[in-house]
Design brief:
Belongs to the polysaccharide lyase 1 family. By secondary structure, the chain is an alpha/beta fold. The chain has six helices and 31 strands. It has one domain: Pectate Lyase C-like, CATH 2.160.20. A hairpin with a 2-residue loop joins strand 10 and strand 11. The longest helix has 42 residues. It is globular and about 55 Å long. About 14% of the residues have low confidence. The protein binds 2-acetamido-2-deoxy-beta-D-glucopyranose (NAG) (5 copies).
């Protein structure tokens, strides 16, 4: 007959045994999970080309969603390239390899040193003080420009940039506001990331420096947030743009190889002009990718308004327009893929597209295509130019459209990101 103390010892051993088995199983399970996640990482880092990209990344997302602890990819192929890195602030220049679309070769200041902006003032536009944004952007050497702290920069005159510059607002809350804004003219290789640009005004009719060796007279500006003229390899990513005197982004005078991605556009009438004028035929070579942007509250028209060139409009979220979303004149080629277009309630403004001042007999020949777009609240896209596939090839940048059902998650962090040091952005 077993004593009660022997029974208790037996029970204790039994409990201990169960505990050990549980702990062992738990460790095995965790190791399984880790090796699964390693495998996933290896698969993710395999190089993939544009034709397989969309399918692959969709598969990856499904997997990532299941492995909750790994999830930071949301189907945004540009962000997925760098945003999961908690050490983004030590690897800032990695961003330069993450561009996609026609502007994917914009390296900005990748090959230069860092320049830290410490002074938000703009006292002297001919001899700018070292430590100011103006002093940084006019230099001849490549520079990766970052900000010491949060700041509001009220520019007295347009900020005339020089080639090979990145303006990287990550880690600070940087506003360029209530004054002049950004001019990209006759240069190449610029990346602008993570700025709030708003309430831009007309300035000018004065002398402004554009490089260490040159300053000259500048006429009255239009009051655009970002004005791109005769420039190439430009990438505008994750900015918020609103409420300016003229356009939010204008691309004119033979500019090309441009990507405008992940931006948040709000409160503005004429949002984006791509192409100088109907008679400016140098814009026939223009290629612009408009991807992953959120066209939000308070917008009226021109998202974008195109002329002559080739425009790839991919996976954008259009939640507000008063008049129309995509328009143009002078035979532009428009390739609209995987966007979500939500029409306003106004019954006369349901059409996504607008051909400006052109007879139907003429615009019937223009190549405007909608593929996989999601049309909400009665929105409709009028395509034209069926069958002219050669021109569509020129309007297909290497950014494979994802299903429009993913636009919500892809654009959920459009605009500047709240990046904190030591954490993924
Ligand atoms: C992309 O990859 C697929 C599958 O690996 C291959 O069949 C195809 O030829 C590749 N396309 C290009 C343009 O490299
Ligand atoms: C430019 O400034 C000059 C003098 O500073 C003035 O006479 C001229 O009217 C101005 N031009 C415009 C277009 O405002
Ligand atoms: C300067 O701007 C004014 C006002 O926008 C315009 O009337 C004038 O033609 C411009 N001058 C030059 C030289 O471009
Ligand atoms: C509806 O849209 C049409 C066409 O853009 C415009 O003329 C009209 O003013 C709009 N109506 C309202 C109530 O906004
Ligand atoms: C390449 C790859 O990893 N494919 C997988 C992605 O996830 C889906 C859904 O779980 C699988 O069906 C694929 O085989």
């Amino acid at each position: 007959m077993a004593s009660s103390s022997q029974k208790m010892t037996g029970a204790c051993f039994f409990v201990l045994f169960i505990f050990v088995v549980c702990a062992f199983t738990a460790t095995r399970l965790r190791n399984d999970e880790i090796s699964r996640s390693r495998k996933l990482k290896t698969e993710d880092s395999q190089s993939f080309n544009s034709s397989t990209m969309a399918i692959r990344s969709e598969q990856n997302i499904t997997k990532r969603r299941k492995l909750g602890f790994l999830s930071c990819g949301n189907g945004n192929l540009i962000d997925d390239c760098w945003r999961c890195d908690p050490n983004w602030h030590k690897n800032r220049k990695r961003l330069a390899g993450c561009g996609m679309g026609f502007g994917s070769n914009a390296i900005g200041g990748r090959d230069g040193r860092f320049y830290v902006v410490i002074d938000p003032t703009d006292e002297d536009v001919i001899n700018p003080n070292p430590g100011t944004l103006r002093h940084a952007v006019i230099q001849d050497e490549p520079l990766w420009i970052i900000f010491e702290r949060d700041m509001v920069i009220n520019l007295k005159q347009e900020l005339i940039m020089n080639s090979y510059k990145t303006i990287d607002g990550r880690g600070a809350n940087v506003h360029i506001a209530n004054g002049a804004c950004i001019t990209i003219q006759d240069i190449k290789n610029v990346i602008i990331h993570g700025l709030h640009i708003h309430d831009c005004k007309k300035t000018g009719n004065t002398t402004v420096r554009s490089s260490p060796s040159h300053y000259g007279h500048r006429n009255i500006t239009d009051g655009d947030a970002i004005s791109i003229m005769a420039s190439s390899h430009i990438w505008i990513d994750h900015n918020s743009l609103s409420h300016c005197k003229d356009g939010l982004v204008d691309v004119i005078q033979g500019s090309t190889s441009i990507t405008i991605s992940n931006n948040l556009f709000t409160h503005h009438d004429e949002v984006m002009l791509l192409g100088h004028s109907d008679s400016y035929t140098k814009d026939k070579m223009m290629q612009v990718t408009i991807a992953y942007n959120h066209f939000g509250e308070g917008l009226h028209q021109r998202m974008p308004r195109c002329r002559h060139g080739y425009f790839h409009v991919v996976n954008n979220d259009y939640t507000h327009w008063e008049m129309y979303a995509i328009g143009g004149s002078a035979n532009p080629t428009i390739n609209s893929q995987g966007n979500r277009f939500a029409a306003p309630n106004n019954r006369s403004a349901k059409e996504v597209t607008k051909r400006v001042n052109t007879e139907e007999s003429e615009w019937k020949k223009w190549n405007w295509r909608s593929e996989g777009d999601m049309l909400v609240n009665g929105a409709f896209f009028i395509p034209s130019g069926e069958g002219a596939s050669a021109s569509h090839a020129s309007a297909s940048s290497l950014l494979a459209a994802q299903p429009a059902s993913m636009v919500d998650s892809i654009t959920s962090s459009a605009g500047p990101l709240g990046c904190k040091i030591g954490k993924p952005c």
